[in-house]
Design a protein that fits this description.
This protein is of the alpha+beta class. It has helices spanning 6-27, 35-38, 95-114, 126-147, 195-214, 226-241, 301-320, 332-348, and strands at residues 57-60, 64-66, 69-78, 81-89, 157-160, 164-166, 169-178, 181-189, 262-266, 270-272, 275-284, 287-295. The chain contains eight helices and twelve strands. Strands 1, 2, 3 and 4 form a four-stranded antiparallel sheet that branches. Strands 5, 6, 7 and 8 form a four-stranded antiparallel sheet that branches. Strands 9, 10, 11 and 12 form a four-stranded antiparallel sheet that branches. The termini are far apart.
Length: 351
């Protein structure tokens, strides 16, 4: 038998190695499945998680109160997908500045990638992450309502009201509206701890039942649960205010439901150095026909500033038709809060 030449063996081994590498490369996917997410783009598989139906424009979530300050998220959406997420409020001051600067950009990126509020908390920013996710979810709820997306049968819409602060804790109501009627009401937040547990367990089911029966927020307070009832009614009204035009009956559409092209929209609460500011507007034919502050700083010097500045801000909002209004001299903080809440109300209208 003729011996194989060493050079021949080396050539054959090299050829086999190259063939193996080529085969492996041909089996590798054309792109890394995680590359889109790493680049801050939404992966195609996640598209169904964001509200579909052509939602476009900015949507601002409710402010979520945390142990270190408020967190509020604003989304920019195009064709039902989240294209940008930003925190318009976040904890600040001292150590919070560093935590916010580190965590918020990562949460923003995660929201765009996930196209939902199902995102992981950032390590070392537990409270900020929880507040971010809560506000993000409320923004998505508003986008669904704005799009009139189908949730369940009969064109049902889920609407989450703003958080109403009471002496014993926050109250927040979520309702399902179908065919212009409230078909379900529930309290996603209610006072708890000590005596509050008993009051909540007794009163909330009765308030839920009353909301469904009445079809609006004009319900009686439950005896012995005055504060909880007041907070419930306030949050319920804000949920109904978010019902899209033409999507509900004259009852469920809130105070603007009697006119087909009229909507009443309540903005998120804007926290200022001197107290909260919250704006409610009536929009008809694409124009602001009425503006009012349902909350404004009060007590001491604030009473005088509020009584002087708020009527002028209301008038300016109607005249401008948007939130690009001038601050009132001597009422810098109130003006800033007013404009922020006004913008969040207009975001709900898609304007």
């Amino acid at each position: 038998m003729r011996k194989s030449h060493p050079v021949r063996r080396a050539v054959l081994a090299g050829a086999a190695t190259v063939s193996g590498i080529v085969l492996l490369l041909s089996l590798k996917p054309a792109s890394d499945p995680g590359s889109a997410q790493a680049a801050g783009q939404a992966p195609p598989a996640a598209a169904g998680q964001a509200p579909q139906g052509g939602v476009n424009g900015a949507v601002t979530g409710d402010a979520a109160q945390t142990q270190y300050g408020a967190v509020q998220v604003r989304l920019t959406m195009a064709n039902g997908k989240i294209t940008q997420a930003e925190a318009v409020q976040a904890p600040k001051g001292g150590r919070s500045d560093q935590i916010t600067a580190s965590s918020v950009p990562r949460l923003n990126q995660a929201a765009v990638a996930a196209q939902s509020a199902e995102i992981d908390a950032v390590s070392g920013a537990t409270y900020t992450s929880a507040g971010y996710k809560k506000s993000l979810q409320s923004a998505l709820d508003k986008a669904k309502a704005s799009a009139g997306s189908q949730q369940g049968s009969g064109g049902a819409q889920t609407l989450t009201g703003d958080v109403a602060q009471t002496q014993y804790g926050p109250v927040q109501v979520r309702v399902t509206v179908a065919g212009g009627k409230i078909t379900k009401a529930e309290a996603v937040q209610a006072p708890k701890g000590g005596r509050s547990d008993q009051i909540t367990s007794s009163s909330v089911p009765r308030l839920n039942q009353a909301a469904v029966a009445a079809g609006n927020a004009d319900i009686d307070a439950v005896s012995g649960a005055t504060y909880t009832s007041a907070g419930y009614k306030k949050s319920l009204q804000s949920a109904l205010d978010k019902a899209p035009a033409g999507g509900g009956s004259s009852q469920a559409a809130g105070s603007g439901g009697g006119q087909a092209a009229t909507r009443t929209l309540t903005g998120s609460v804007a926290q200022t150095q001197y107290g909260p500011v919250q704006v409610r507007v009536t929009v008809a034919g694409g124009k602001i026909t009425k503006a009012e502050a349902v909350q404004a700083p009060k007590g001491g010097r604030s009473d005088q500033i509020t009584s002087s500045s708020v009527p002028r801000l209301n008038q300016a909002a109607v005249a401008a038709g948007n939130a690009q209004i001038d601050a009132v001299s001597g009422a810098t903080y109130t003006s800033a809060g007013y404009k922020q809440s006004l913008q969040s109300a207009l975001d709900q209208a898609g304007g």
